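thought: user wants a sequence for this fold. calling inverse folding tool.
action: design(structure=
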């Protein structure tokens, strides 16, 4: 314990440098922090993104959209992959038909570079739920899976976002 006395004297001098008012304020903040931790809202609110929940279900090869229209603002897209395979989930803002997005040179996937991409989940493993929080402005959005051939296989859906009151 050679370092102990040094440690102690350093701490004392630091405390000495902090005037009484500041020390009071620090203790008050700690108390507020503890109260916040003990309230249920703080516990659940920290982990859960807020917004209108849009439940999406991925299947081989189809996307079910539980809420085809929402109002603008914070939206939490919950992507349930009920298919036996991993899928991707891409969101673009476009007025193009869901089955009329531009394809890339491979002819098997959508050319995302030509689209206004709003967000994506690279991988939603089979049997899991992916969460994608987005802030959406009014407009029309298309969801799709862009793994080779999956979009062409029918994995696309539309979400209409209207201006809220
Ligand atoms: Cu897919």
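)
observation: tool returned 165 residues.
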């Amino acid at each position: 314990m050679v370092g102990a006395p040094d440690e102690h004297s350093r701490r004392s001098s630091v405390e000495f440098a902090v005037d009484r008012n500041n020390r009071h304020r620090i203790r008050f903040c700690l108390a507020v922090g503890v109260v916040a931790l003990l309230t249920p809202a703080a516990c659940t609110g920290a982990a859960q993104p807020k917004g209108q929940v849009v439940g999406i279900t991925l299947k081989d090869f189809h996307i079910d959209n539980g809420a085809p229209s929402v109002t603008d603002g914070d939206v939490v897209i919950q992507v349930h992959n009920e298919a036996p395979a991993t899928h991707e989930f891409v969101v673009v803002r476009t007025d193009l038909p869901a089955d009329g997005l531009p394809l890339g040179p491979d002819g098997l996937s959508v050319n995302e570079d030509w689209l206004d991409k709003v967000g994506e989940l690279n991988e939603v493993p089979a049997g899991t739920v992916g969460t994608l929080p987005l802030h959406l402005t009014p407009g029309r959005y298309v969801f799709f899976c862009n793994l080779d051939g999956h979009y062409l296989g029918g994995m696309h859906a539309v979400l209409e976002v209207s201006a809220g009151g």
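thought: summarizing for user.
answer: Here is the designed sequence. Strands lie at 52-59, 62-65, 69-71, 73-81, 87-93, 116-124, 129-136, 139-144, 156-162.
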